[in-house]
Structures are given as structure tokens and as C-alpha cells.
Amino acid sequence: MSESVTTHVTTSAPLATIASLSAHEGQTITLRGWLYNLRASGKLLFPIFRDGTGTIQGIVPKAAVSEEVFETLKNLTLESSLTVTGKVRADSRAPSGFELDVESIEVLQRVPEDTPFPITLKEHGVDFLMEHRHLWLRTPRQSAILRVRATIMRAAAEYFDTNGFIRTDPPILTPNACEGTSELFEMDYFDDDKAYLTQSGQLYIEATALALGKVYSFGPTFRAEKSKTRRHLTEFWMIEPEVAFLELDGLMNLAEGFITHIVTRVLESHCADLKVIGKDIAKLEAVVGTFPRLSYDEAHAMLDEAYKAGKIEAPHKYGDDFGSPDETYISSQFDKPVMIHRYPAAFKAFYMQPDPFDPTKALCVDVLAPEGYGEIIGGSQRIDSYDLLKSRIEEHHLPLDAFQWYLDLRKYGSVPHAGFGMGIERAVAWICGLDHVRETIPFARTLNRIYP
RNA sequence: UCCUGAGUAGCUCAAUGGCAGAGCAUUCGGCUGUUAACCGAAGGGUUGUAGGUUCGAGUCCUACCUCAGGAGCCA
Questions:
Q1: Domains of chain A by range and CATH?
Q2: For chain A: N or C, fewer Cβ within 10 A?
Q3: CA-to-CA distance for A261 and A155, rounded, in angstroms?
């Protein structure tokens, strides 16, 4: 069983973090963290410590420390918590450029031998790793991903905050099934009522946009889709701007500036993390700038040519939505995100404004991430006519009384307005170059897993 | 919901229908510059579950369970 935790620290050396060690060269400092790995070569030990900011290798020659310190470290188990004091020394042999000449160590909690830390440095299967997600998070790659995620979320909010947007978060609990109940999580809401977890705050932020002009929301959303792919979670985070007096072209400019800002921020401070994760930084550097814009018709023509040239297996039928292989082909033709606009209105959401030049098309845009990561942004200009919106609600057999408040927005000073939503996890998967969105969030919720 | 694949030691995987194996992890021993260290040794098994075929099943058959990848749908 586990030994007791002691928190007293007997050293007088100043505390430091591993990420800041370059500023402490030649100094004796104390780190608080965990034992990440331990190699031994007779009377010389090479413990690797981690503290959440990085890892550092310690050097422990038997002759240089007390018998107690040497024996304690020699027999220490992986992921035991500790404080370690030593002198920071530059060393060209070290991956980070620095090593720690250990002077003393204090163990807070020693991991028992009979229950060793389950995540080893060797490979593991997906099921095992997800079952131990709470411990998997400690590995350098997973920690790096979460640091990049935090920057992406901060940069996303920052872009709107510094451009005159007001954050107005919509409710998580919603009263009615807006677009069909099959993909909604349902729950009891007192007495005889039902409530549903939100699958998008869009309708609500249309209301706040008409109150405040430029708004955005940022929070978790839920979809009970029985999707089992590398791009799907049942709970994911979405950031959604909504702007009064904005039309489709302006919306595409907004999306372009938004993504460019996020990528720029990640490149500014996460090259080391991206290297640990294994992402090709050059591919991210190519993203900054203007993005190609294709109409649905142009994208269809591109797929048509690709099929005739034998580059894709199945032909794309004009009038149908693009499938996953179609999107992958289109995005592979560019090294930047691609914006595809003006899809046929027939398979798009009821609230999308028709194109005045071709009412069979909707004024909408999807942004496809490079490298086959699929749709990261979906947005549109919204219908601003009361009569048109009402008839669309009826055509889609949606309950009119549930949308009365939404129709009110077209009754009291309606204006053109537009917005989009970006799924954070897909953006993180693309920017980090991950195989699956389950690694982009601390605890992924998927079709088959809700533990831990 | 549909299609495909996989379940064997704590983990990752081997094993023509014929003795249950390896690497890593753990424990013990060795090694003063290791980078997933290395070398030697030990312990560790209800082969996903239930039935069936067979002299004999991890292996073949049936059903079920779990997981993974994909399709559809979506961010």
C-alpha cells in the first residue's frame, strides 16, 4: 500500500521549474515533481525528473552524494512524487542542454513496487491508454498537446476580445429539439418537462448579436451522434462568433483572420511542444495568409476532373454534399485551409440565407483544414426575412411555437447577420497533427467510452 | 445503423489442429555518461464469454460481449 505523504522541505535552495532552468545555470535550485525515468550504470544514476513544465535528467555519482540519497534514488519507483535539489549545469549531451547534479532528494509519496505506474515508455494500445487517461496525461506528448490546446483556446478568445466582440455564452440546457432529437442528449427537467444539452449556441447568439453587435460564445457542446471516427466526440468545445450587419464575404474574411491568428500564436510559443508531438512546423508556417475560396460548383468541377483522372474512387454527384474522401481530396490540393462556399440549400440548415443570384444555393461556408483533417469551421449568413424563415421552419416540419422567440429577431429590427462555429478539438488535431481528436481534450467523451 | 478487423502474461505481440512463447514492466545480481540504456537470472497464464466439432482447440464452427478503423451525419 502507499506510503504517507510528507510535505516538509528541508532545503533552503530556491524553487524553480524545469522550463526555467536555463535562467539558473550554475545555481543550486529545488524542483518539485515526479520521477519520470531512471537509468543506472553501477555507481552512477541517471534519474529523469518531470514537473509539468518539462523534463530534466539528473546525474547522481555514488561518490558525490550521501549513501542515503544514493540508495533512495536507486530504489525509487517511476512516477513517485519528490522534491530534488541540485546544481544546474549546461551539458551538450543533454537534449535540453542542461542537466541537474543532484545533491539531495526528498520523496513525498513512493509508488509501491507491486502496483507500478502502468504507462511505460513503450507502446500501448488505444483501449489501454484511454482506460488510463488520467495517468496517460503525464507523458510528455500528451502534456505538450494540452499546452498547445490551451494556447489555441486562449488565442481564439483573444482574437475576438481584441476585435470588439463581446462574449455572450448561451445556455447549456435547452428546451427544445431544434433540428431533430436523435443527436441530442435528453434529460428530465422537473415535473413533466424535458431538457436537452446544447448542440450549438448559434440561435441564442443571433439574439445577443442583435443586442450587442459583435458577439461570440465559447463552451462545450454535445451531440449524441453514433459516430465512431477519428473526428468525432460526443462532447466537444466550440467557439462561435455572430455579427450583425455581416454578410458572407465578410464572414470568410473573419474566419481567415481568426485561423491565421491562432496558428501564429501557436508558432510563437510552441515549437518545442510541436516537436515533441511530431508535427511538421513548416506545414503550419505555410498556413498564414489568404486562403483559397471555392464555390460548391468549382469544388464539384475539381472532383469531377479528379475522378476522370482516376485520382478519386467514386464520382461526386452534383447536388449532393461532399463525403469524407471528397473533402480529403480537395484539401490535399492546397497547403492552406480551403473555404468552400455556396452549397446547395437543399441539404443545409433551415436558417441559412439563400444566395440572391441563385436561390438554390445557401450563403454558407465550410473551412476544410489541410492534410485531410476535414471541416473545422461551418458558418453562414442567416435568413433575415421573417416570412422566409417562417416558411423554412414549416418546410422542415419544425415546431413553430418553439421558434417564436427566434422569429421575433426578424420582427424587431432585422438585419443581415452571419456567424460560424469552430470545433476546438478538430483545430487542435490539425494543428498538432494528431491521428484522433481523443488526444486533444483532457478526457474525451466518445460513443463507447465515458470512463474515466 | 451498416461494413471490416482484433481480443493470448500488467503492457505490446508471437505460436502448420499436437509441450503456452518473446520483448518491455516488476523483483534480484552486474556495470561511472546512460538517452525507450545495456548484460545475466527469477516470478508472472481460466488464451474475451458460452456452447460445439475433434483422440487432441489459442488455432476450426455457432452465438454473444468488448474494443478499434471506416461509411453515413457532423465541428
A1: 18-109 (2.40.50.140), 134-292+334-439 (3.30.930.10)
A2: N
A3: 7
ipTM (interface pTM): 0.89
CA–C1' nearest nucleotide, residue A40: B34
User: What are the pLDDT digits (tens) for A357-407?
Assistant: 999 999 999 999 998 888 999 999 999 999 999 999 998 888 888 899 999
Q: Which nucleotides of B are covered by protein (CB under 7 A)?
A: 1-2, 10-13, 23-28, 30-38, 66-75
Q: pLDDT for A218-249, tens place per residue?
A: 999 998 888 888 889 999 999 999 999 999 99
Taking C1' of B11 and every protein CA, the nearest residue is: A124
Give the whole-angstrom CA distance, residue A287 versus residue A175. 40
Pair A420, A251: CB distance under 8 Å: yes
CA A120 from centroid of its chain's CA atoms: 25
> Residue A123 CA to B23 C1' — how many Å?
12
CA-nearest of A313, A340, A335, A317 to A325 is A313
